[in-house]
Amino acid sequence: MSNKKANAKREAYAKKQEEKGKQIVGWIFGALIVLAIIYLFWTFSMMA
């Protein structure tokens, strides 16, 4: 019985970690997009 409980806990923890990981990847990609947009504005402002 305790083995089933341990398995359930492990699966819940793994699911939580996966969701956190996806959220962090989303934030990283969002930050990269924002930095790319800032770089574009900076590049075109230097050309003018």
Give structural notes:
The chain is mainly α. The protein contains one helix and no strands. It has one helix at about 1-45.
Low-pLDDT regions: none
Distance N terminus to C terminus?
Answer: 72 Å
Largest sheet: none
Class based on secondary structure composition and strand pairing: mainly alpha
What's the total helix number?
Answer: 1
In terms of quaternary structure, what is this? Answer: single chain
Radius of gyration: 21 Å
Helix content: over 70%
Strand content: under 5%
Mean pLDDT: 93
| Strands, total number | 0
Order of helices and strands: H
Topology diagram in text:
Elements: H1 2-47
Identify the notable features of this structure and list them briefly.
mainly alpha; rod-shaped; single chain; 48 residues
Summed up:
With 48 residues, the protein is mainly alpha-helical. The chain contains one helix and no strands.
